[in-house]
């Protein structure tokens, strides 16, 4: 195979490698907030929104928007890492932690060890329940102090920032406890089942 | 296996070919056409595009798609590129590349957004900005093929100076079998301007586009917002969906 | 064709924008093929499907009901293709017809 011709004077826009212990391997720092979507942005009236916890055929908890807003709120400042290589530091979010939801629903022990998140538009992603507890994850409704815009996942998205950001599912509506880990939308198309940015688990087999 | 069964596998697979810039044409302050020599280039059809791949000295590569602006009959391939300020590939192609420079192209790609004179018409073309490129390939093909298919081009640009191929379109429109060309300028109009002075909308199309009763083949190309508005308007005016083909220009993030 | 921008909202494109990638997978011109949506039964040329996914991958959705009819992702070890949302694909002998 012949080498490709070099385009004289072309340098490309490579982001400089960021020497920063807060940036996982292969990532670069961005100050934008790129929007990537696997489908159209759902439009939803808040009166129609609800969030539910399910296991098997059972409904373990369900909240309307006003009920959800009345739950104990948590604010976090976290770094987020997208598998497409951008990382954004010190992002602030507000929402309801998964711990709070389980507590309010009276669930002392998660019924199954894994979870599948279901979203408006059909997007899904899988996360081990242990990665959703102990303050590691929330259903976020505010970004930078303002209600989350639809293009960024509003009215509510999952926020699980210690995993690649495709796991922080936009437009989330249901958390379903499941017995075995199952691949969601991107995981069934070659992306890693778990997605730890610090071990660079981008794709299946990494 | 019947003959038609093997014909499917006979279509050339895509491969990267070296393109050499023969000359550059500054169409407008932000838009440049590159005339390329591509040895081994297979025939293309008007409306198709190519992938362009640039390789830097250290091996880094970037790739984007561009519509082919030249007629299939032209001896060389022409791409028309608008410079996007924070882009990676377009600033190189639209401002840096000069005669003698080499990069790779792959194609022709796409059989969906294509027009040949043999398909007939009438032909209704709606373009926004650099979306004119694949439609210009269709008009150039129409001219070379000496086709008398009635055709109308409705072309939206920001200002007079931003109209790509303006003089060539004027020449085409002046011919007896030429296309009817209607320009609309959305941001600023020169003194004495008699064309449109706003974004393409249903009222404008009702006035200047080919009537739905004549069942034109419509091709719409440009930014997503223009394409969606124009397609909706055409449907509202009574054109049928299967006679409308759209190509939206937008970021592919590739 | 692909506006060269790096951080704008992911406005959807047509399936035609995925033609290059599809041409790497299929020996025929996929954008001219007609797909029957497994969600709603609508038929349309692949080139007119709505394209999402950006840098993550290619997701072609039915323009009527948004069901993903074709999904593609390129990984270091290979290219993953999922067409469970497509009931059938018709590849015409003459794509220009």
Quaternary state reads: heterotrimer
Biggest β-sheet description of chain A? 6 strands, mixed
Most extensive interface, residues per chain? B-C, 47 and 35 residues
The 3D shape of chain B can be described as globular
Shape of chain A: globular
Describe this structure in words.
The complex is a heterotrimer of chains A (206), B (254) and C (97). Chain A is mainly beta and 206 residues long. Chain A has a single domain, classed as Sulfite Oxidase, Chain A, domain 2 (Alpha-Beta Complex). Helix content of chain A is 6%, strand content 31%. Chain A has 2 helices and 11 strands, in the order βββαββαββββββ. Chain A has helices at 65-69, 98-104, and strands at residues 28-29, 50-55, 58-64, 74-81, 86-97, 114-119, 124-128, 138-143, 146-147, 157-159, 172-178. The longest helix of chain A is centred in the middle third of the chain and has 7 residues, at 98-104. Chain B has 254 residues and is an alpha/beta fold. Chain B has 2 domains: 10-109, Elongation Factor Tu (Ef-tu), domain 3 (Beta Barrel); 117-249, 3-Layer(aba) Sandwich (Rossmann fold), CATH 3.40.50.80. Chain B is 23% helix and 31% strand. Chain B has 6 helices and 11 strands. Chain B has helices spanning 3-10, 90-96, 132-144, 166-174, 202-208, 224-237, and strands at 16-28, 31-37, 49-55, 61-67, 77-82, 102-109, 123-128, 151-157, 180-185, 217-223, 244-249. In chain B, the strands form 2 sheets. Chain B has a 6-stranded antiparallel β-sheet with strand order 4-3-6-1-2-5. A 5-stranded parallel β-sheet of chain B has the order 9-8-7-10-11, sandwiched between helices. In chain B, β7, α3 and β8 (151-157) form a beta-alpha-beta unit. Chain C is mainly beta and 97 residues long. Chain C has one domain (13-89). Chain C contains 1 helix and 8 strands; from the N terminus they run βαβββββββ. In chain C, a hairpin with a 6-residue loop joins β5 (58-61) and β6 (68-75). Chain C is globular, with a radius of gyration of 13 Å. The chains are: A mainly beta (206), B alpha/beta (254), C mainly beta (97). At the B-C interface, α1, β4, β6 and β11 of B face β1 and α1 of C.
